[in-house]
Each structure stands twice: as structure tokens, then as C-alpha cells.
């Protein structure tokens, strides 16, 4: 049967639109990568050590992959995912790889397969198709590449064309790895690798060891967190340290988008209940909601962009959480109310252009009904790209179709890869750029947008918008 050239991956099938999309994609493809939100370990680049074997690089840390196999009865321990309960896990990389390859058919049609195949081919130059029969051959080809100096982290960073990579750290992190990057000329304000302030573990009373974490916050900040006022002072002090390490944004992974303004005395009483271990689920939600307004006020003072990633029910698979801990594929999305949830924050600060809130969703139904009208009506709001369960070509297309008519392109904030898998960064951005090229080509073909404006827009979406919105290199 006829095949589509790999160069036309994800571009429109209609020949005229495909030709237009090729030209637009070529403009996007030459732009540097701005990666403003992700979870790459900064130690990877600070230490610049060779990557481990292919399984530990590509399979073990990728919960997109391991959760799919769990759904088919393959436990994460068989794929080398570390346990937190002391149960044994597979340690042989080749065995893990063979087991994964035996289930490769499970990923047909998924973005995980798309990303992995692009990583094999475009990053490592491996063109052998993965299958149970070729598992060892692909493993050996990848292992040979990983042994070469050109495939160490910093060399790949340069080859990927990454201009800025933002990692994500807790206020309890000593930022030592970022200090090493700064000393090597890679980090610090304006650096190539910067941190992001992620305070969930000291804000969410339902987070494991929350009170102990707040005690630790006192130690690292030098402020007394025995009182609510001291707690706020400690958070401000840590934000200062993060800004000194290059941070331009904070990030908040709350279960909902609820915001709520408490009087200072109410907030202090709620904080005290939490510290005494007497807060219930309603208290925890009220405190999270109140703290989003506090963080908005802090952002007005220190300039950090506020990212909000709501909508995940964390650790829904309780067996998985008990056996392997957090962030290993046990979370699921839930419906999220933005219109009412964000109203207190928007009433207070939504029309202040000094505040920059980048809003994400795991609830696709809200694209047209809530998110686009909100971003199209408040100076402080920008829409973040579809992420996590929604970062597929299909949803990226639907996102543009759903939000552009109300919010336009310039109330969106560019693509985020949201990944722990360093080697997938360029392929994920490539997928987004191809989808945007196809969408813009359709507008040109329908005479809804001149070709020269589409060309300008594709560069804005790929590069200029995320650089401006996330304050990398100034506001211009």
C-alpha cells in the first residue's frame, strides 16, 4: 500500500493543505526549543554523566508506558519501577526491554508509540522497527549510541536546539544542582537550565508528611513556620532563592481550580488546625484555595508567572501508590470547574496585566465553554497547552479548533512537554509544531488567514510566545 513520507508526519492529507503545512512546518522546525514546564532531573545536566542502559533511560521512568502494561496485567516491578514498600523489582535492563517489546502492540495508535519511534529514529538514528523479534537488536543499537560522548546529556541538549529548559523543584530543595549548573555557565538567571517553584508539598495538607515538610521549610528558609505569618515569610524567602537560581515561574498542581479569599485570622486558624493534625478534607481544600490567592499576591510582588495545573485525582490506584509511590501512573483526570473556581482570584487580580497566570486543564470539555472565554476576557490569563492525558496530536488539534475563535492565538502560552523523559523533548515539540502547521495551513486554504500572517504565527507559537509569556530573556 502507498506510504506517506516521514517528512509529512501528522501533516494534512489533502495535497494543497499539505504543501502549505510543509512550508509552515519548515519555519517552526528551525526555531529553538523553549521548554517552560517539565520534570527533567536537573542533576542529569549538572553531572553530565552517560545515560544508563536503554531500559532505564526510556522505560523505567516513563509512566505513560508502565501504566499501559499494568492495564494488561504486567506489574511495574517487572519493568524495573522502584518500589517504596521493599518489594523486589527487576534490575536487568535487557530483561525489562524484552518484556516491554513483547507488549509493543499495546501502543498502536498512541502518542507514546509516536514519541518513542521518533526518539529511536531522530535522536538515536535507530531505524530498526521494534518488535519481540528485534528487541535485542534495537537494545544493542541504542546501548552503542549511549556509550558515545555525543549522546551525553549536555551534548544532546545542544543538538536538540534547546534554548531554555525549566525543571521543577520543591521549596525544600537546596537547589544545589542548579548551583552547579550556574557555576558551569548553564544556569542562574537567564541561563539555559532554570528551576520552577513548586510548593505543593508544603501547601497541600493532604500531602504525605505535610506538617513535617513545613518544619523542614523553616530550616531551609530561616523563618519560623510555627505561625501562619512566619509560614508566608518562609515561602517568600524560598521564592527569592528560586528567583536567584533563575526561576521565572511557580507551578501549582492542585486537585481543583478553586480559589478562595480568607481573612487573615481565618487563614491563621486553618493553618493552626493543620499543624495540629486536626484539619479535614474540606479544610485542606479551603487552604489550597486560599493559598492560590496568596501566591497571586506574591507574584505581583516578585514577578513569577503563576502556572496552575488542576484536575488530577492523585494516586487513584491505591495499590500502585502503596507499592511504588507517587508519579508512577496511578493518577486520573476529573471534571474541573474554572468559571466559579477562579472567580475570587480573577475578581481580585484578573484585570491586572502585571499578573501572569498560565492555566492548564485535564478536562477537555472546558476548552470552549470555560477556558477560551476566560482567557479571552482577562488580562492576567493565558492558556497552557494540552498536557499529560491530553498531549496527543488529536487533542492538540482540537485545542486549536476550540479556543482560537474566542481566545485567539495570543492568549495561549506555547507548548509545554511536561516530561521526565529528556530524550523525548525534541520529538514532543516537533509533534506540536506539525499539528500547528496543519491547523494554520487549513486557515490559509480556507482564505481565513493570509499566508504571510500564518508564517508569522507559526514562529510565534513555536518560539516567541512561550519565551515572552514565561519571561525568558525579557518582555519584548
Automatic annotation (TrEMBL):
Keyword line: Isomerase
Catalytic activity as recorded in UniProt: D-glucuronate = D-fructuronate
Uppermost EC category: isomerase
GO MF annotation: an example: glucuronate isomerase activity
Pathway(s) per entry: Carbohydrate metabolism; pentose and glucuronate interconversion
Record-linked SUPFAM superfamilies: Metallo-dependent hydrolases (SSF51556)
EC number: 5.3.1.12
NCBIfam families: PRK02925.1
PANTHER family assigned to the protein according to its UniProt record, in alphabetical order: URONATE ISOMERASE
Family named by the database record: Belongs to the metallo-dependent hydrolases superfamily. Uronate isomerase family.
Listed name of the protein: Uronate isomerase
Gene name tied to this protein: uxaC
Amino acid at each position: 500500500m502507498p506510504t506517506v513520507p516521514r517528512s509529512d508526519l501528522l501533516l494534512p492529507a489533502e495535497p494543497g493543505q499539505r504543501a502549505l503545512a510543509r512550508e509552515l512546518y519548515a519555519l517552526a522546525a528551525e526555531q529553538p526549543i523553549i521548554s517552560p514546564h517539565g520534570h527533567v532531573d536537573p542533576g542529569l545536566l549538572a553531572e553530565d554523566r552517560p545515560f544508563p542502559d536503554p531500559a532505564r533511560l526510556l522505560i523505567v521512568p516513563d509512566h505513560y508506558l508502565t501504566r499501559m502494561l499494568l492495564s494488561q496485567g504486567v506489574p511495574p516491578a517487572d519493568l524495573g519501577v522502584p518500589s517504596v514498600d521493599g518489594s523486589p523489582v527487576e534490575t536487568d535492563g535487557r530483561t525489562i526491554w524484552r518484556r516491554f517489546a513483547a507488549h509493543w502492540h499495546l501502543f498502536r495508535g498512541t502518542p507514546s508509540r509516536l514519541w518513542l519511534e521518533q526518539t529511536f529514529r531522530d535522536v538515536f538514528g535507530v531505524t530498526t522497527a521494534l518488535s519481540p523479534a528485534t528487541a535485542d537488536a534495537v537494545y544493542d543499537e541504542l546501548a552503542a549510541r549511549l556509550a558515545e560522548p555525543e549522546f551525553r546529556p549536555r551534548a544532546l541538549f545542544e543538538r536538540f536546539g534547546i534554548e531554555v529548559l525549566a525543571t521543577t523543584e520543591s521549596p525544600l530543595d537546596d537547589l544545589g544542582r542548579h548551583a552547579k549548573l550556574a557555576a558551569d555557565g548553564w544556569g542562574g538567571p537567564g541561563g539555559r537550565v532554570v528551576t520552577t517553584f513548586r510548593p505543593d508539598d508544603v501547601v497541600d495538607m493532604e500531602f504525605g508528611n505535610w506538617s513535617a515538610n513545613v518544619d523542614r521549610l523553616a530550616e531551609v528558609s530561616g523563618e519560623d513556620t510555627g505561625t501562619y505569618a512566619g509560614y508566608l515569610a518562609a515561602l517568600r524567602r524560598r521564592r527569592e532563592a528560586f528567583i536567584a537560581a533563575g526561576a521565572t515561574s511557580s507551578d501549582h498542581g492542585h486537585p481543583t481550580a478553586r480559589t478562595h479569599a480568607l481573612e487573615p485570622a481565618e487563614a491563621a486558624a486553618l493553618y493552626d488546625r493543620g499543624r495540629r493534625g486536626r484539619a479535614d478534607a474540606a479544610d485542606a481544600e479551603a487552604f489550597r484555595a486560599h493559598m492560590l490567592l496568596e501566591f497571586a499576591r506574591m507574584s505581583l510582588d516578585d514577578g513569577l508567572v503563576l502556572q496552575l495545573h488542576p484536575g488530577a485525582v492523585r494516586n487513584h490506584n491505591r495499590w500502585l501508590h502503596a507499592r511504588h509511590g507517587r508519579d508512577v501512573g496511578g493518577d486520573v483526570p476529573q471534571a474541573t470547574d474554572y468559571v466559579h473556581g477562579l472567580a475570587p482570584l480573577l475578581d481580585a487580580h484578573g484585570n491586572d496585566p502585571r499578573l501572569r497566570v498560565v492555566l492548564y486543564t485535564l478536562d477537555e470539555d472546558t476548552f470552549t465553554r470555560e477556558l477560551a472565554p476566560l482567557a479571552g476576557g482577562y488580562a492576567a490569563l493565558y492558556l497552557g497547552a494540552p498536557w499529560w492525558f491530553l498531549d496527543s496530536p488529536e487533542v492538540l488539534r482540537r485545542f486549536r479548533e476550540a479556543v482560537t475563535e474566542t481566545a485567539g492565538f495570543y492568549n495561549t502560552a506555547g507548548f509545554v512537554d511536561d516530561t521526565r523523559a529528556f530524550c523525548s523533548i525534541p520529538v514532543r515539540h516537533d509533534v506540536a509544531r506539525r499539528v500547528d502547521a496543519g491547523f494554520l495551513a487549513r486557515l490559509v486554504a480556507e482564505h481565513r488567514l493570509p499566508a504571510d500572517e500564518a508564517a508569522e504565527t507559526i514562529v510565534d507559537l513555536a518560539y516567541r510566545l512561550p519565551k515572552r509569556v514565561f519571561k525568558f530573556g525579557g518582555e519584548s
